[in-house]
Amino acid sequence: MNYKNDIIKLRRNSIVLSIEEEGNTAVGATRFGGIPDVPKDFQWPYFSTSTFDDEEEKPRPLAFIAQFNCEEISKYDTEHLLPEKGLLSFFYELDSQLWGFDPKNKGCARVFWFENIEDLSPAAIPDDLQKENIFEALKIKARSEPSYPSFEDFSLTRDNMIEHWDEYDMSMKGLRKDEDNIHKLLGWADPIQGNMTMQCELIKRGYYLGGSWDHVTPQDRQESIDHSGKDWLLLFQLSSFAEDSVDLCFGDEGNIYFYIHKDDLAERNFDNAWLIMQCY
Predict the structure, then answer these.
(1) Contact, 234 vs 148, CB < 8 A?
(2) Which region, left, alpha or beta, applies to residue 84 given φ > 0 means left and ψ of -120 to 50 means alpha?
(3) Is the pLDDT of residue 166 over 90?
(4) CA distance to 27, 132, 146, 236, per residue, from 182 (Å)
């Protein structure tokens, strides 16, 4: 069976990112790392957790990951999903690197949208933010590129697809680019350990998914299968990478994925974005 036409119908635009060389530190500039630009009343996000090196659960500052000037990025957002002005900023607690399996993980990663760039200035870095979690500012280059669903996302609403992996793989010839360290805004995710939209929906419904999913009710499971692939959108995917003085690794050379419900994205409610980490 050839799935190519079905795959093409699911095409989404993605904004593929490359991170390289010294970044622009001007207020409101798109960049990885450096000092985030924030409003005067901004309170640096903290999350209460233990870490790999410290079993004490206490509030810990999130690391600043990246910021995107929406006006700069909008030229690549052909589906007009992101705000067309302002600054979109991403933070994550790196010393615990929580996976996003637990509703209690809410707050381990944060997304902020600051609508008026002219009101922003460089933030004051918390004294208790570890130096290794303060990154050199690096430049981010962007380009628009078509994106197609992974096998895991494509097969979500199709029964017995595991028997048709080879047909899916052949159908993807000429569509897929095999690249390492894929960073992107929007489009389809490049999963390492399977579909994530179903996980986002079930977490939203209050389920802990760090072990067996046997406690998920048949109704919630079916509804998340039927709707999550359309309702939950990839907002930002960042892969482990090393560039200049930055060596950022998620788990065992994995990725972090910020997902957002389409309604929250339309309403610019980035507080409800959900982070998932996957690794090899």
Answers:
(1) no
(2) alpha
(3) yes
(4) 26, 23, 14, 11
